Amino acid sequence: RGNLLDVSDLRVVFYTYRGLIQALNGVELWLNSGEKLGIVGESGCGKSVTSLAMMRLIEQPGEILSGSIRFDGQDLAKLDEDALNKIRGRDMAMIFQEPKSALNPVMKVGFQIAESIWRSDNAKSKRRVYQEVRKMLELVGLDSDRTINLYPHELSGGMAQRIMIAIALSSRPKLLIADEPTSALDVTIQIQILELLQELVKKLQYAAILITHDMGVAAEFCDKITVMYAGNTVEHSETMNIFEKPYHPYTQGLFKAVPDIGRTDELATIPGVVPDLVAPPSGCRFHPRCPHCMEQCQQTFPPLIEIEPGHHVACYLYLKEGDTHAN
Ligand code: SF4
Ligand code: MG
């Protein structure tokens, strides 16, 4: 499906005192080199867990139960820690929601960028790396003279996120994953950071995954969109397609919940709440909230099928005779 990343049947659980949380229930996700994919859904649908699982960063009490994570010719699900460490922060780099907590507090930001450059090529001379650090700082819109020797606590939130982006891009990743990279920032700074990311990803032609609960942001940034609900992929398509013709009742609800610019109506919301994943609904996990729920929906999980070229949906409304296999 995707030539750079192809995640299939990814299942993750967390063992808690309340019971087993079935956080990811067979996620399907793929993308090609150079593509920008948005992962969207309400909070708690498993977007962040998916990105952590892809990098094999799920820690106790969590566990990956099954799934293949094919990335650039290898199945990350089968690699050991040593091999994974060569990929993380290098071929696959990540930007988090809280930039300050992701930075090393006792190291100057210039040095943190230098480390990332060394990770991609440890044969570079100090002088060369120093020049590249300066270039990276300018690339993310910072004055290199003023910022290179700062410590993380001396940065504003927006500056810290620019530094995180510089670190992530310094390793020349094949895939950049950004998990709600702007949600901790003020609105005006959010826009600046998103514009910067968009510009850089385009200029440098990296593949990128943007995790967001904001459909507008996803539409701006992404070529393709994967919609998640309660630990499942429920729809995947090109961005234009999914906005013009959302098929899954959940996706349709998500779009209704996006306010039109200039309209003063109250924000529509999807009735019902995100299910408790300790005791998820049987069959289609969306069925308690779905206006089209049928008997079959309550019994078995609908497979993700391609109903039009490039448009995949997991919903019995579109399942035809003979469509029994996922994809
Ligand atoms: Fe609704 Fe059934 Fe489709 Fe689930 S499978 S979204 S319950 S119609
Ligand atoms: Mg999250």
TrEMBL record:
<dbReference type="InterPro" id="IPR027417">
    <property type="entry name" value="P-loop_NTPase"/>
</dbReference>
<dbReference type="InterPro" id="IPR013563">
    <property type="entry name" value="Oligopep_ABC_C"/>
</dbReference>
<keyword id="KW-1278">Translocase</keyword>
<dbReference type="InterPro" id="IPR017871">
    <property type="entry name" value="ABC_transporter-like_CS"/>
</dbReference>
<dbReference type="InterPro" id="IPR050388">
    <property type="entry name" value="ABC_Ni/Peptide_Import"/>
</dbReference>
<keyword id="KW-0472">Membrane</keyword>
<dbReference type="GO" id="GO:0016887">
    <property type="term" value="F:ATP hydrolysis activity"/>
</dbReference>
<dbReference type="Pfam" id="PF08352">
    <property type="entry name" value="oligo_HPY"/>
</dbReference>
<comment type="similarity">
    <text>Belongs to the ABC transporter superfamily.</text>
</comment>
<protein>
    <submittedName>
        <fullName>Oligopeptide/dipeptide ABC transporter, ATPase subunit</fullName>
    </submittedName>
</protein>
<dbReference type="GO" id="GO:0015833">
    <property type="term" value="P:peptide transport"/>
</dbReference>
<feature type="domain" description="ABC transporter">
    <location>
        <begin position="5"/>
        <end position="255"/>
    </location>
</feature>
<keyword id="KW-1003">Cell membrane</keyword>
<keyword id="KW-0067">ATP-binding</keyword>
<dbReference type="InterPro" id="IPR003593">
    <property type="entry name" value="AAA+_ATPase"/>
</dbReference>
<dbReference type="InterPro" id="IPR003439">
    <property type="entry name" value="ABC_transporter-like_ATP-bd"/>
</dbReference>
<keyword id="KW-0547">Nucleotide-binding</keyword>
<keyword id="KW-0997">Cell inner membrane</keyword>
<dbReference type="GO" id="GO:0005524">
    <property type="term" value="F:ATP binding"/>
</dbReference>
<keyword id="KW-0813">Transport</keyword>
<dbReference type="Pfam" id="PF00005">
    <property type="entry name" value="ABC_tran"/>
</dbReference>
<dbReference type="GO" id="GO:0005886">
    <property type="term" value="C:plasma membrane"/>
</dbReference>
